[in-house]
Amino acid sequence: MIEYLNKYLIFYINTNFFVALAVLCLHLSSEILLGSNNYEVSIFIFFATILTYNFQRLVIIQKGIDNKKGSWIRKNKKIIYFLSILSLIITFFLFLNFKFQTQIVIIFCGIISFLYPFLLRSIPYLKIFIISIVWTLISLTLLVIENELFIDQNIYYLHMSRFCFVFAITIPFDIRDILIDFKNIKTIPVVFGEKRSKYISAIFLFLNQLILLKLYLLKFISDEMFYGTIILLCFTTVLIMQSKSNRKDIYFSFGVESTSVLMYIILFFSSCIV
Known about the structure:
The protein is 81% helix and 0% strand.
């Protein structure tokens, strides 16, 4: 039974379903915070994430990176190609229905994502900023633009908060990849080491909470939501501090990634109490 669940979880992670769920949950969290939803944007985000990450993984393994995940992808290329083509078809038709401004943001993120494994990934320190900016644009900005929401200081604070959160939870993944990145890429863990990188991650997580406190004082988020984010802060901090380069990939790809899912769960139940 445990072996079966482990195989299912590996499939779920390696096909990038879970990272797609994580980005989707960040978007759904934005819907709750902004009091506005858009099902087409939600579906687009889920399948666009699968398409993007599958494409990048296929490119990276062609470069000869050899690890368990790379071996799994090589053995299951047909599944990856099928999911990628399906995702491409779905996202293409959804893209055609979006407003022009939304399409511009999507095209920008698409170009960055396409160039990432070829050119941008190797530029020192750029990797984490690309991920943080793209995830913020996809999980928050798309909804604001497509639903034509009024842009005030709360929207700006929310973007800053999202950027800091994604930045914080990305560092543990760089800790995981430190031995791979050491030869080719200058990431925060490569330059500052594992211990200092954890502190940097914690600082950005704390900045995220300070911004949420500001939104709470502005009465943009409720008491229940703010207290819920403190629980998320504590849980995420523990995961970050326990990150080590010798930990199994599942700790990061499922454990750390699940913080985005937890954010949505906390905000969902908090909104039900209000």
